[in-house]
Write a structure and sequence with these properties.
The chain has a six-stranded mixed sheet, with helices on both faces. It contains two helices and six strands. The protein starts with a helix and ends with a strand. By secondary structure, it is α+β, with helices and mostly antiparallel strands. A hairpin with a 2-residue loop joins strand 1 and strand 2. The radius of gyration is 16 Å and the shape is globular. It is 23% helix and 38% strand.
């Protein structure tokens, strides 16, 4: 696994843990189909307390990035691929057809430790709860959930 892929997986794991501490249940990590990948699919209580499906795009970026921490990478083309993937996901799962759906974006920053350790492909589990803006040190990297944008775009 490449270093960038491992770092991306660490970001997804961090966001997954954060969602679980917010009361969401993760249904899938890295769900693939012919249109692409959905990083996280979660079910939980939305704003109104109604069970909601959240399709989460996680963007993990280093210090010097060109796309505002990953936000500009959610282009209309990327949104269309995610929407197509969601339609395919729902077509095989009629039990979720009545659930409201939303498309969320999580922005994670990643910086090496001052003295980085060797990168491990093993994705650790997080034990303490984390908050937005709080750093977590893992595998020679400092990861921070910078922002979590609910309903970042619509179909």
């Amino acid at each position: 696994m490449s270093e960038s892929r491992v770092i991306g997986c660490l970001g997804e794991k961090l966001v997954s843990h954060w969602l679980e501490t917010q009361g969401w249940q993760i249904l899938h990590h890295q769900w693939y189909c012919r249109y692409g990948e959905i990083d996280l699919i979660a079910v939980g209580a939305g704003e109104s307390g109604i069970k909601t499906l959240s399709f989460v795009e996680v963007k993990t970026r280093g210090q010097r990035n060109w796309d505002q921490g990953g936000l500009l990478a959610i282009t209309p083309k990327k949104q269309a691929k995610i929407i197509q993937s969601v339609a395919l996901f729902l077509s095989d799962r009629p039990q979720f057809l009545e659930y409201p759906c939303r498309f969320d974006v999580a922005l994670v920053s990643c910086h090496p430790y001052p003295t980085p350790n060797s990168l491990s492909e093993e994705i650790p589990s997080f034990s303490p709860p984390i908050n937005i803006g709080q750093s977590v040190l893992i595998n020679g990297y400092q990861l921070t959930l910078q922002d979590y944008i609910e309903s970042a775009f619509s179909e």
